[in-house]
Amino acid sequence: MHDLSHQHNHQHCIDDALLRARELCQQRNLKFTRIRELVLATVWANHQPVGAYTILEELAKESIRRPAPPTVYRALDFLLDNGLVHRIASLNAFVGCSDPGDAHQGHFLICRQCQIATELDAKLINPAIAAAAAQQAFTVETASVEVVGYCAQCHHKPQGESVHE
Amino acid sequence: MHDLSHQHNHQHCIDDALLRARELCQQRNLKFTRIRELVLATVWANHQPVGAYTILEELAKESIRRPAPPTVYRALDFLLDNGLVHRIASLNAFVGCSDPGDAHQGHFLICRQCQIATELDAKLINPAIAAAAAQQAFTVETASVEVVGYCAQCHHKPQGESVHE
DNA sequence: GCACTAATGCAATATTATAACATTATATTT
DNA sequence: AAATATAATGTTATAATATTGCATTAGTGC
């Protein structure tokens, strides 16, 4: 598990994520192109989920002509397909996967205040989902869990400091 | 629990949902207006989640001037606030709540083939979520679970032929 | 080089959702 | 009933998110 406390050497997260992505693509004979790398780096810029159009802004800074939305969405599709990022449907946003390679669904704790999305251990949740689904003879393909609340660092702090409200 | 088998008297679901909504609004001194009723009826037209703009089409059929999007979204907000419908973020769609009154989050099984969304028992899932969140000292406010797969009626059938259309 | 495929560029558009302000309906008080 | 207040709806415009379709470019194998 990674250090998700609010004061951590985040550059390490970014470097680590990019390195693992590079390795994973090499292993699978996939192309980790500049665009894909830039998009992944942007997603990993912090632990807050980031929207496609925010990523687009970042891409624009790095290129002469402003890229169009499909550029971002295609890169995101690639990263999603290869388990390098997760999409958080309730936020229409994307976040780096903390455990790529092992294909899995993202289950997230999302802090209302600092917006940090922490991937939670699927092993604790999936059995409960499997059991509940089995009750209805439902065959699970994918499952996503999105929990909203307050993280340990934020839940004692006053509300007003949030970007949200 | 309600009869969600594929051959059921669905008119009963609709009538029941509308009746309970009417009662709930009366109890809480809320106005169950024509628009809200129409929107709820559309959401309950079947067990498949329905998009806001599809609801808008239905509203258009019932009124002289075509309503604008805010009309639908405001009615949906009302219904969401009062636990009469749930929003399924991964589909940008809305589905009737099978247990209104008891304020709760929707946890859903969504069939890839027939698209029916079945609300699953939160009591089986929430403890697991609570436990996983507690591990990270995270305070849960709301949690949503969206499971995609094949329902009992569909999961042995060949792709492409749904029982209910 | 040539053919093939994957990736990207690019223009247009689709889909989902909200903001801001005007008007109408309902309820409450007088 | 008139006056006021509040909630609901109408209306216009626009924001935010995402996709389609087709052209072009880059890399790969022959």
TrEMBL record, chains A, B:
Asked if Transcription regulation is a keyword of the record, the answer is: yes
Q: Name one Pfam family in it.
A: FUR
Establish whether keyword Phosphoprotein is in the entry.
Answer: no
Instruction: Please name the InterPro entries in this protein's record.
Output: FUR, Fur_C, WH-like_DNA-bd_sf, WH_DNA-bd_sf
User: In which domain of life is the source organism classified?
Assistant: Bacteria
**Sorted alphabetically, which Gene3D superfamilies does this protein's record hold?**
3.30.1490.190, Winged helix-like DNA-binding domain superfamily/Winged helix DNA-binding domain
Entry keyword set: DNA-binding, Repressor, Transcription, Transcription regulation, Zinc
The Swiss-Prot or TrEMBL record describes its family as follows: Belongs to the Fur family.
Q: What is this protein called?
A: Fur family transcriptional regulator
User: What is the organism field in this record?
Assistant: Zhongshania guokunii
Taxonomic classification, please? Answer: Bacteria, Pseudomonadati, Pseudomonadota, Gammaproteobacteria, Cellvibrionales
